[in-house]
Amino acid sequence: MQEYFLLFIITNQSGISKGITTDFEVELVNKYIVETLLFNGIIINQVFGCRHKTEDNCICRKQKSYFIKLADELFNLNLRKSFIVDNHPCNEEECGLNVGLTPIYVLTNQGNKHRETN
């Protein structure tokens, strides 16, 4: 199935700009994730990460579409046939739908707290 998809990780890492963690530590975690997925047959084509604080109002923070547009430029994607998978509804709506991606919302960990209860 992987041959039909290019996979990317887009992540907010405001802990770097807040001094909670370092670029190096975040890169180690990202490398571990990418290598673990690769070991299991899943190829991550690129990891994009925003290191700014929310209040910086930068162009690259997830919820904005900067990294999706960059991935499109770098890999010539077909955004209308692409998906965004996230556990936060705001990220899907603002980040993915604005550029034509189909959202997939997962209800694990953080995602479950956003689930509407009846």
Structural description of this entry:
The protein has 118 residues and is an alpha/beta fold. It is 33% helix and 18% strand. It is built from 4 helices and 4 strands. It has a two-stranded parallel sheet. Strands 3-4 form a two-stranded parallel ribbon. β1, α1 (23-39) and β2 form a beta-alpha-beta unit. The radius of gyration is 15 Å and the shape is globular.
What proportion strand? 15-25%
Low-confidence stretches: none
Please work out how many helical segments DSSP would assign.
4
Ends: how far apart? 36 Å
Rg of Cα set: 15 Å
Largest sheet: 2 strands, parallel
Secondary-structure blueprint of this entry?
Elements: E1 7-12, H1 23-39, E2 44-50, H2 66-75, E3 83-86, H3 89-96, E4 102-105, H4 110-113
Parallel strand pairs: 1-2, 3-4
What is the compact description of this entry?
This protein has 118 residues and is of the alpha/beta class. The protein has helices at 23-39, 66-75, 89-96, 110-113; strands spanning 7-12, 44-50, 83-86, 102-105. The longest helix is centred in the first third of the chain and has 17 residues, at 23-39.
Task: Offer a few descriptive terms.
118 residues, alpha/beta, Rossmann fold, 4 helices
